[in-house]
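Bumping my old thread because nobody answered last time. Still need a sequence for this structure:
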């Protein structure tokens, strides 16, 4: 008797896909791996945005900034009813003959402006006018306009280790001397609180410390990306509204060079591209 070794057509080992389905299976596995890597990338990246209090820049190329140099800076005003209005700073070349002025104006009539040639000088003031609508707070995001706030004078007052004249070893490189006087040319100033008039103060807070990439000192507490102002009924009093009024302040700004996208971001974009190509081939 003769026995032939014959394999039934289409029969495969248990748990194994047919040969013609292997390419599809392999592509599916690759897509699962890509999805896992993308999820891992997002999980690693999100905390850096959510928790970051320090902004890294490549350099400060110049510390002399005029009102017309801060195009793109975002100014956000919060109203008493909880709503907000965000406007973009622009130069005023189309409406004035002053090449150095710039500002932002809100839909409810508020306005923030700086008309000087150089915020560094400490002689020209910023001016905020509220209009008739009650305002509870202001946030000025300098970094969105390619500049940062330089307040080394406050860093000096708060840090007894700084020596006079300026201890440049503890100064953010090329930022030079900063300036912040929240009451402009009049009023009473205490650290963190500014008196505009009787029973009307504001609390100021600088946000997002700035560090130069490669600077071993990191953030020095003299350069920041944003300024927050909250109006109060008296020093450290209850929140109040600012309306039909105006105030001035002196504040230095420096130019900031934003770094190129990080390696982590490029890695994530590469994964997205590979994933898109893979999905297209599977369709």
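Sorry it took so long. Here it is:
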């Amino acid at each position: 008797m003769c026995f032939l070794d014959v394999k039934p057509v289409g029969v495969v080992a248990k748990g194994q896909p047919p040969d013609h389905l292997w390419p599809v299976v392999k592509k599916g596995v690759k897509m699962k791996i890509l999805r896992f890597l993308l999820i891992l990338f997002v999980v690693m990246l999100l905390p850096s945005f959510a928790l970051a209090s320090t902004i890294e820049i490549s350099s400060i190329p110049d510390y002399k900034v005029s009102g017309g140099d801060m195009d793109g800076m975002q100014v956000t005003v919060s109203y008493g009813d909880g709503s907000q209005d965000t406007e973009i700073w622009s130069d005023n070349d189309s409406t004035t003959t002053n090449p150095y002025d710039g500002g932002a104006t809100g839909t409810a009539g508020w306005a923030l402006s700086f008309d000087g040639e150089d915020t560094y000088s400490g002689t020209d003031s910023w001016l905020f006018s509220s209009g008739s609508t009650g305002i509870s707070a202001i946030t000025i995001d300098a970094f969105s306009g390619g500049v940062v706030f330089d307040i080394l004078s406050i860093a000096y007052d708060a840090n007894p280790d700084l020596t006079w004249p300026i201890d440049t070893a503890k100064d953010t490189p090329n930022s030079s001397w900063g300036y912040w006087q929240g009451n402009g040319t009049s009023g009473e100033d205490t650290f963190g609180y500014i008196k505009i008039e009787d029973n009307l103060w504001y609390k100021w807070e600088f946000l997002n410390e700035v560090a130069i990439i490669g600077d071993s000192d990191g953030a020095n507490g003299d350069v920041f990306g944003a300024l927050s102002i909250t109006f109060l009924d008296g020093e450290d009093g209850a929140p109040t509204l600012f309306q039909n009024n105006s105030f001035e302040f002196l504040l230095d700004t420096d130019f900031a060079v934003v770094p190129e996208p990080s390696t982590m971001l490029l890695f994530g974009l590469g994964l997205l591209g590979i994933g898109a190509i893979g999905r297209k081939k599977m369709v």
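Residues 22-53+262-282 form one domain. Let me know if any region looks off to you.
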